[in-house]
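Aim 2 progress update. The chain analyzed this quarter is reproduced below.
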Amino acid sequence: MTERVRVQKAIAHAGLMSRRSAEEAIASGRVAIDGRIAILGDRVDVTAEVVTIDGAPIPLRPDTETHLLYKPVGVISTATDPQGRQTVVDLIHSEARLYPVGRLDADSEGLILVSNDGELTERVTHPRYGITKKYLAEVNGKVRAAEVRKLEAGVELSDGPARAVNARIVDRFGARTQVELIMGEGRNREVRRMIEAIGYETTRLVRTAIGPLTDPNLRPGQSRLLTSAEVVDLMKSAIP
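Predicted structure tokens:
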């Protein structure tokens, strides 16, 4: 039989805040258990019940892991690969059964989450939750501002129209341009195809942020566990 623990203890044990701060959050009505506003004295089964703060689920299960990985070029965004290629899961040192959260093309690099948290995976990958991803594209050619605005207005692709939430020129060097795009969805090779639609070729594509998550210190192949606070911030960035 699973032990039920006081909800403030469970929140503190997750590392989100101190027990005193958790008690204050409960007293102010910010904490809920399976949708019901929690009160001091409530107990929770961390393996079965969902505890939220300000509407964002808190990762309480002791077996839950979410890693932020800088995926190198050539690594596949799957859990396994029948062709024997290296996958993002191969790069994570963990005994847990983990899966990539969404995908990042083999010839692209940058941040991807690897997790066994189903709720987090659903919120990050489903477009209805509106968690954006930020990309830095190196493009052959001198892209003009008017052409970048087309990426925001929308371009027609083979699988329907696509648009960036925001797009801007970051830098120019020689005959190349760096373009930053913030995307609200993640169709197959979408950024590369959008840039091709305005007449240019992407020579390098790096995902630099997932919602509020970023880490300029990670190098290709490196990863780290997300903190509980980072998980909650990521969940809060989703559209309710």
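The longest strand covers residues 201-210. The first helix runs from residue 7 to 13. These observations will guide the mutagenesis experiments scheduled for the next reporting period.
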